[in-house]
Amino acid sequence: MEGFKDFSFALPALVILVLFIYYPLFNSLYLSFTNWNMTKPVKKFVGFDNYTYLLTSDTFYNVLKITFTYTVFDVFLTLGIGLLLALLFNSVSKFYNVLRMVIFMPHYISMVIVSMIFIWIFNGQFGLMNELLKMLGIEPVLWLTNTRTALWVLILVSVWKGVGFTMIIFIAGLRSIPVEYYEASSIDGATKWTQFWKITIPLLSPTSLFLIITNFISSMQVFQSVDVMTNGGPLESTKAMVYWIYEMAFTEFRTGRASALVILFFIIIIILTSIQLYISKKKVHYEG
């Protein structure tokens, strides 16, 4: 009876998990083996036909390539710039508090609003960026309708929004490193550069791993900026995986095929995340 009482405290959380995570996941798995069209009630079992179609489709690998490209650059730039800002602003003063607040503020702004702001900034006719280019004597660029630049604008939007959060987490990691390590290394003649590579980077590795995995999963699921700014264009050059799932399910109404794509994408994220955790066993150093 006492054990059931303890279990009852976890019951509300378990109910939410079952209703909003496990049930949709297993239902998607079931639908992935059907040819269900959302406009019709009939669900005909088609086996692995949806998976075969996707895995032999050029679009699948092109979308996967776009998603990986976006993710790699987004994670690399967000963590790199976030660490640099953390090193610069890791100081206790009112001035630095204000600077950190300004940099962190975009984290609280909705991605839809951020996307609309950047649509104006990178507008091909009257955008702020092109006005700056004109002042420098450079020809205007059609940022969001050019296959060479559209994806980079989306990456810039994500970095601008996420770098403040990364900076704050890195600052917390930096302040958790005992000062004694730096003092002892200074006595031994270590330079600031040596301290950075031999003390700061290794002891920040748990924080870095957390940020890498969370940013990786978030970037792989990019949707809102694509939906608002480019609709997957131009010429499908920004069609990321989640946007393709949305398009297939709610525009083409191929719900069975979209569910198969969800399952494949879920497996890919799980595999890549597991690889990162496996590699981190030798690369991540905990103080204890």
What does this molecule look like?
By secondary structure, this protein is mostly helical. The chain is 72% helix and 0% strand. The chain is built from 13 helices and no strands. Helix 3 crosses helix 7, helix 3 runs antiparallel to helix 10 and helix 5 packs across helix 7. The longest helix has 32 residues. The model has no long low-confidence stretch (mean pLDDT 89).
Number of strands: 0
- CA radius of gyration is 23 Å
Low-confidence residue ranges: none
Binned strand content: under 5%
Shape: globular
Distance between the termini: 39 Å
Query: What's the total helix number?
Result: 13
Tell me the structural class.
mainly alpha
Question: What percentage of residues falls in helices of 4 or more residues?
Answer: over 70%
| Biggest sheet overview | none
Listing every helix as H and every strand as E from the N terminus to the C terminus, the arrangement reads HHHHHHHHHHHHH
Give structural attributes:
288 residues; mainly alpha; 13 helices; globular
